[in-house]
């Protein structure tokens, strides 16, 4: 989910930008984005950043804040220092400060000039909202799939459909089990495990989708999946598996 934050000290403009963003989100419900903060106080943005640096975020900032020693450029510099992947849009009347953006290596998604008029500001803002949300939504959708290759051809399966991966008896091959299909490809469980946190290595030969677990039988060292299939569990994996299931 892409978080969107607006910081503008002119309260009338702040309300207007909120309307623009909310209107966009209401008409693009397929986009993985939400407006989480709209404020005239740059310190509130900094506070939000401290606790949410891992979330993909788009910041819409003025460059000057009348009642604060913090400028949009210093705020953006702090944002980029903590969150290098943050996207920033400046909406400003202070063209004379633009060299500072270059000097501080901020590289904003866009710089929108207020003097062009509110309609033009809206147009440019919506174009850049579209860019930011499209990119984030694409990444989120891609992360929902497991992609593998057979020869030069790539295939993908929704992770929610996968029950487990199993090391094949054929050397260096992996089997993917879904409710109705089995797929085989060249690969190794360790690489798949490191890239897919929703799956747990319960045995040297098995990597199981945590969402497909119905019950853990510690007496017989077996997992019962939601389709009642039994998966062996190594003794040394029991403790970690129990903690993971509880945390999940």
UniProtKB/TrEMBL annotation:
PROSITE patterns: HTH_LYTTR (PS50930). The keyword Cytoplasm applies. The keyword Cytoplasm applies. Pfam families: LytTR (PF04397). Keywords: Activator, Cytoplasm, Two-component regulatory system. InterPro entries: CheY-like_superfamily, LytR-like, LytTR_DNA-bd_dom. Residues 146-247 form the HTH LytTR-type domain. Signal peptide: none annotated. SMART domains: LytTR. PANTHER family: STAGE 0 SPORULATION PROTEIN A HOMOLOG, TRANSCRIPTIONAL REGULATOR-RELATED. This is LytR/AlgR family response regulator transcription factor. It comes from Loigolactobacillus binensis. The lineage of its organism: Bacteria, Bacillati, Bacillota, Bacilli, Lactobacillales.
